[in-house]
């Protein structure tokens, strides 16, 4: 890789009811200079191209946010988290837009509305066979991601670990339901109340809120269709741990009251 282009990495760690149960590590690399931010403040810098940097994700992490700057080539990022999360097409990415130029601090906020951002595109997995080679310390299934746009110098990418956090804050519902980083790609099976097709996680939340016997729900966060599956459950993972299982593409939420 050429060292004449840079990437700026921003990690946002809000402290709310959606907390991890353990401290995790994020391993990241970039096409140039990597700068790490914790709660909006710079935490570290690495100007060695294609060398993995490791950062601690404290309990309470809800959003990973990345800004990539590359003045010679299209910017891309690659990374993985110790719980199995990787850079892939579930991330939201955009190139630099006018509204971000004017409000370039707001996108870092965990409650920034990224619903209009497109899903990331992926180019290569972290394998020896790809033209950029394998990056040590990052999972093999991690993908180099960017936007479909060409000829841009800045890339903004976000990965929301709790899809409900933005909507919950806007509607003064903080603390009513929660999903931790460990609940991504998990679901509670065999405890159905009802199943629905919804447009977003807030609609699924309202379905559960309207059912007095709903104690948790599974939301299909990874879908190319305009609607997502919403499955209401009559129990929580604590009440039925046997049926709380890994389920890629879904996130588990439970009533925190």
TrEMBL record:
The keyword Isomerase does not apply. Pfam families: PAN_1. Keywords: Signal. Residues 157-257 form the Apple domain. InterPro entries: Pan_app (IPR003609). Residues 1-18 form the signal peptide. CDD domains: PAN_AP_HGF. This is Apple domain-containing protein.
